[in-house]
Task: structure prediction
Amino acid sequence: MGMEQENEYAIEVEDLVVRYGDQTVLDGVSFQIRRGETFVILGGSGHGKSTLLRNLVGLMRPFAGRIRINGQDFTAMSDAGRMEVRKKIGMCFQGSALFNSMSLADNVALPLREHTKLKESTIDIMTRIKLELVGLGGYEDYLPAELSGGMRKRAGLARAMAMDPEIIFYDEPSAGLDPIVAAGIDMLIRKMQSTFNLTSVVVTHEMASVKLIADRVCMLRHGRILAMGTLDELAASDNPFVRQFFERRPDEDQEDRDDYLRALTGGSERTAPGPQEPEDGR
Amino acid sequence: MGLEIDEREGDGAFIVTVSGEVDLYSSPELRRAVTQAVAKRTGTVAVDLRGVQYMDSSGVATLVEGLRAVADTGTGFVLVAPSQPVVKVLQLARLDAVFDIRDRL
Result:
């Protein structure tokens, strides 16, 4: 994998629309990510972050719109073409997605054995380098089940880095970790970016992580981009929903007292609100 | 840009001059050159890296293989004038102190 520099942008997304049945989950999303940039996709649960990520890595095809990776139209490609592009992409899954029956070394070596013609001796050293990078030197023979949650996250990162990708995607990298371990993962993300000039796309809702790693942030709400810019730009936004997110305020309870009383005493039937109910009039 | 390798003997060493990009797909070529240089046992093996624009971990792993191989032959293994991209990857892998790195041969 070389560092082709003919295109300023590693990723370009244009008018992306994704639907699950009749439900529109992403509705006209557009942005560009520069090479070497750490771009954070922020937003509450159920607003389209994970769906966007699945489309960016090619695990889903959109209903409409275009995704270009290194200038190539990823959405229009054949499966074989997408597989070639995916070799330049690393994916760090939320649950690490390690094979439980394989040692850490075999987990990291797997993509190299599958996709390259490198000698086993070279792969062995590469694997040890990657595990050292994430602070897991000496754990080559351990099984994933023998590790803590933070260590499994780091092992997942080592495997995502196995093929020396140009672009790496992180799905909730610090979710479920204590603040110290989470900060360690954030520093690792930064270190990888600066050393390899990696383009990094991070899906998260952890504001502490965003402050440490983001060059730019895109905030999704109900499948649309609500705001995009540097963290300082978003922090200065007067959009009420951006403010609510940054100030960590819950949705206001606007239920009528009488309705609530009737519901509790069996005087009316309630229906659960849908996850994508528009609250901002769009 | 691809990978270019020049191999020659001189100054009591076997010099492998590398330029371009060393990645997953081109590093086997570097491995071939380094392995052959070590096998000649003509003295120090010097890998000139000033022209390398990009090196990934497969390139670094190949250099580690070379270093390990010379330990068996008793000859030296030197990295000459590594470019900034090479230095950064060596530093990240904490190998900058492991290799004998020189500005010139």
Q: What stands out?
A: The interface with chain B takes residues 1-3, 112, 115-119, 121-123, 125-126, 129-130, 132-133, 161, 163-164, 191, 195-196 of chain A (CB under 8 Å). The first strand of chain A starts at residue 9 and ends at 20.
